[in-house]
Amino acid sequence: MDLLSLARAVKDRAQEPFTDLAATARIVADPRLPLLLVLNRTLFTPLYRASFLAAAAGSGVLRCMATRPCDLESLAAHLGTAPEERRRLRAWLDVGVRLGELDRREGCYRLRSRTAKALARAGNDAVAATLEELLRFHVPALRDAPRMLQDGDRFALSDQDGLVVARSTLVVRRLVEEAINKTLPRTAPVRLLEVGCGSGAYVRYAAGLNPRLTALAVDLQVEVAEQAAKNMAQWGLADRVETRHGDLRTLDLQPQFDVVTMHNNIYYFPQQERADVLARARSLLAPGGTLLLTSPCRGSGALGLDVLNLWFENARFGGPLPRADELLGQLRAAGFDGVRATRVLPGQAFRAFTGVNSASGPVGALPARSATTTAEEAVS
Ligand SMILES: C[S@@+](CC[C@H](N)C(=O)[O-])C[C@H]1O[C@@H](n2cnc3c(N)ncnc32)[C@H](O)[C@@H]1O
Cβ(162) to ligand 1 under 6 A? Predict the structure, then answer.
């Protein structure tokens, strides 16, 4: 090496730290960096956490790890993944570790965060299913709204997972049970029709309150009705509860029921058809029979309900969450007497609506007047 080259090499080496510092300064000075760092903390990471936890809960992985630490092999067996897919499974689990939800020690994964441990508990299944519903159905409602408007596209019932919804909807369980407590006769024999029964949990609750109650539980979605039938068998109620796949609007039944219940599903019907749907429910009640309908209502200020409302606004088959006065008008139009709306919990958007079928009157909805009558006096 000649003297000049040596001098250059020494100079280059001496300048290296300075060059690195300058490069770092240039990168750090990127005006987008502060925003990225803030979003990483406030949006990206919580979104990653929510997505990971929803998938881990929904796939049963959290429940597996709640019983014991699990190695890759046992988790793969639980998920039924092919042996050549182990690397992909590990990549997913390792992100869970990186997010602090899981821990990996001695080749085994275990639950680490309090949230992961809480979601793994059987008693919190409705909350875990709510997280899954949020990620799988609420996020697309927000994300795809502009595109759907542009394309004239709408959600179909098959865009929901009926089995997930049948579990998530049980987050309002205590509220529905309170409404049943206030309405259901306890000693007389009761023939109950539950429309849109979901898991069947409320038929089970009613059967527990009244040992002489028998019921027909119906759901529009075949997989939901099948799961409800399995639940009834597991709860020892198969001899008292018949479970059927069917649509309220086309059920071939006599007016034989003392009580008809509709929990959390009036928004599965278009707004302009609700009076007819309620008239149909009334036509299945014996004279003197009662309809109990529970629903979250619009305008509560609860963000989750606004997004649920958005989903159903964008649904091909349903409509917005009801307003209490509007639904009372529809109940009157359907021919119900003594209609009432009560808040199950003060200040909450969730309401119980009741109406009585006084007579074996007309089956169809009554025209105009009562449908548009507001009934604020009966709203509490
Ligand atoms: C949000 S889930 C509520 C399930 C259950 N009632 C609960 O509160 O846990 C609404 C259910 O109503 C059912 N449903 C909607 N329209 C229906 C119809 N026309 N006839 C019968 N069931 C219906 C859906 O299939 C779905 O399972």
Answer: yes
Helix (H, G, I), strand (E, B) or coil at 218: strand
Q: What is the pLDDT of residues 88-98, one digit of tens each?
A: 999 999 999 99
348, exposed or middle or buried, with CB in 10 Å at 0-12, 13-18, 19+? middle
Q: Is the dihedral of CA 116, 310, 260, 198 positive or negative?
A: negative
Pocket lining: 166 vs ligand 1, CB cutoff 6 Å: yes
What does the alpha-carbon distance between residue 55 and residue 93 come to, in Å, rounded to a whole number? 11
Q: Tokens 């994964």 — which residue?
A: 109
Residue 48 has pLDDT above 50, yes or no: yes
Say if residues 245 and 222 touch (Cβ distance below 8 Å). yes
Phi/psi of residue 94, each to 5°? -70, -30
Q: Return the axis-axis angle of helices 86-98 and 45-58, rounded to nearest 10°.
A: 130
Q: Write down all domains in the chain, each with its CATH number in brackets.
A: 33-122 (1.10.10.10), 171-301+314-378 (3.40.50.150)
Q: Which residue owns the Cα nearest ligand 1 atom 17?
A: 220
Q: What is the atom index within ligand 1 of the atom nearest the CA of 198?
A: 4
**221 CB less than 6 Å from ligand 1?**
yes
Confirm or reject: Cβ of 249 under 6 Å from ligand 1.
Answer: yes
The tens digit of pLDDT for each residue in 247-264 reads 999 999 999 999 999 999
Does position 366 have pLDDT exceeding 80, yes or no?
no
State phi, psi for 60 to the nearest 5 degrees: 85, 5
